[in-house]
Amino acid sequence: MARTNYTDDQKKAFVSAWLATGKPKSRWHKEQVAAGNIEGHYNAFDQWVKLWQGELQGQVSAQPQAQAPAGGHQVARTTRTSSPNALSNVGRNSSLLAEFQQTLLPEDVQAKYIAFLEAKVSGLTAELEALQEENAQLHTRLEALEAPEAQQENE
Question: Does position 74 have pLDDT exceeding 60, yes or no?
Fold first, then answer.
């Protein structure tokens, strides 16, 4: 199902993020879809790239790219530019990119996801409390079973 409600700014942000990675278009799109960061068919993303690559290429390539160290983790460089488009820096730092892409979700999806997570946490908390209560009861029964043995040894 193709997502048609991305704004032009959001589409440009995706194109900028892709340009900053230097990865093949299809690979980047496939990874983003798998991570749940972008919706829609590759052909739609390809159209966005064709539409805005020329405009965004200069902004992304005019800034130095962060090099990945041997560990494979990307290093974020803070650069101050006169460019009003701060989105061109988003693709350099994966945690910033993930945080930014989270803002692209419709608010109702965010609210439902938060409610889902809260329900999971509440369920796990209730399960933990029940197990702690059961554990306390077992300790009480164990102490009760050990008490007669202690009395017999004292006699």
Answer: no
> Quick one: three-class SS letters along the chain?
CCCCCCCHHHHHHHHHHHHHHCCCHHHHHHHHHHHCCCCCCHHHHHHHHHHHHHHHHHHHHCCCCCCCCCCCCCCCCCCCCCCCCHHHHHHHCHHHHHHHHHCCCCHHHHHHHHHHHHHHHHHHHHHHHHHHHHHHHHHHHHHHHHHHHHHHHHC
2-6, 58-62, 115-119, 130-134 — which is least confidently predicted? Answer: 58-62
Cα separation values, 14 from 10, 33, 94, 116, 142, Å: 6, 12, 13, 27, 61
Question: Rounded to whole angstroms, how far apart are CA atoms 116 and 122?
Answer: 10
Does residue 154 carry a pLDDT above 50? yes
Structure tokens of 72?
A: 């494979």
Instruction: Report how far residue 21's alpha carbon sits from residue 11's, in angstroms, rounded to the nearest whole number.
Output: 16
Distance CA 102, CA 38 (A): 10
